[in-house]
Design a protein that fits this description.
The structure is a single chain. The protein is mostly helical. The chain is 77% helix and 1% strand. It has a two-stranded antiparallel ribbon.
Length: 324
């Protein structure tokens, strides 16, 4: 049994049922859409986000029918953003398989993303789940703003630590925050509990993204993906931002020159990776990640002890110790 399967144990039955409901929520009478959504479902990831929804509901009163809709909405939104991200990033691969845009081109990929987003929003509207609709719609807005802020700042490479945290709070943390908030809300939790769960999710999401940033500086054999991707895409992540803030001016200018003008040169990218590894960027980022993880776990202790809370804690630990 894998580590994730052990964490999933208190909600294993619900996750199996969710699989069926989620697949059902994507259905269309258009054959091309059916073919593409089938392809997407067959290549699903670890499903960490639905797990956060169900565990949050368990902590706040128990899983009910509304929880399945909350998890489906989140997963439809998340899948839509991944499809759109691959178009934005001109990426041909997702989770080791061809991306939707690689197989069916950008125009179809954008329309598929739009379809999935609309299905998620309609799932709430059709069932009168307006609290869930607000939580998820806020996430859509924030994720779009975060992505655009990152694109704007990447052009000038003027991202400092405060701006970085603004970006990841909107781009990544908002979705995990909405998992926890929608799970709590679906279980009938009051506004205070929903807000507390949302904050926990946000802190977990920030730790999660820092962990992702760190993968860029690890050897590809350890994580099964290439390193230096963020540098090639001129994304200013925490290890690099802290390195730029602590090295001498000459080294700083050299790094910026490589990221701006030589980001497609593997040898130059490797040079930046080595500078970050040799400096304090990695250790500093790991320290920040642990701070946010611990903040989330401390807030989690304010909820009653239960198997759901235990699994939630283990899932948080997993997000910062995962290998990829």
């Amino acid at each position: 049994m894998s580590e994730l399967d052990k964490i999933k144990a208190p909600i294993a039955k619900e996750m199996d049922e969710f699989e069926l409901k989620f697949r059902d929520s994507m259905k269309s009478h258009v054959p091309l859409l059916e073919k593409i959504t089938y392809y997407i479902v067959k290549r699903k990831g670890k499903q960490i986000r639905p797990m956060f929804v169900f565990l949050s509901a368990g902590i706040c009163g128990g899983v009910v029918e509304s929880t399945y809709r909350a998890a489906s909405m989140i997963e439809l939104l998340h899948t839509a953003t991944l499809v759109h991200d691959d178009v934005v990033d001109d990426s041909n691969e997702r989770r080791g398989f061809f991306s939707v845009n690689a197989l069916w081109k950008n125009k179809i990929a954008v329309l598929v993303g739009d379809y999935l987003l609309s299905k998620g929003l309609l799932l709430a509207v059709d069932n009168g789940e307006f609290d869930l609709l607000k939580i998820v719609s806020d996430s859509v807005r924030e994720m779009s703003e975060g992505e655009l802020l990152q694109i704007e700042k990447a052009r000038r490479l003027d991202i400092d630590e405060d701006v970085y945290f603004d970006i990841i709070r909107q781009k990544t943390a908002t979705l995990i925050a909405s998992c926890c908030a929608s799970g709590a809300s679906s279980a009938g939790a009051d506004a205070d509990k929903v807000a507390r769960m949302k904050q926990i999710g946000q802190d977990v999401g920030i730790a999660f993204q820092i962990k992702d940033d760190l993968f860029d500086y690890e050897s590809s054999s350890a994580i099964g993906k290439p390193t230096g991707i963020d540098i090639k895409e001129r994304k200013m992540t925490l290890p690099l931002i802290h390195t730029l803030a602590t090295v001498d001016n000459q080294t700083r200018r050299r790094i910026i020159n490589i990221v701006k003008n030589h980001n497609n040169n593997p040898a130059k990218v490797e040079e930046v990776i080595q500078i970050v590894r040799e400096g304090k960027g990695i250790a500093y980022s790991e320290e920040k990640m642990i701070i946010y993880k611990n903040k989330a776990l401390k807030a989690l202790e304010t909820f009653p002890d239960s198997e759901f809370r235990d699994s939630f804690r283990n899932l948080v630990e997993f997000t910062v110790s995962r290998k990829k």
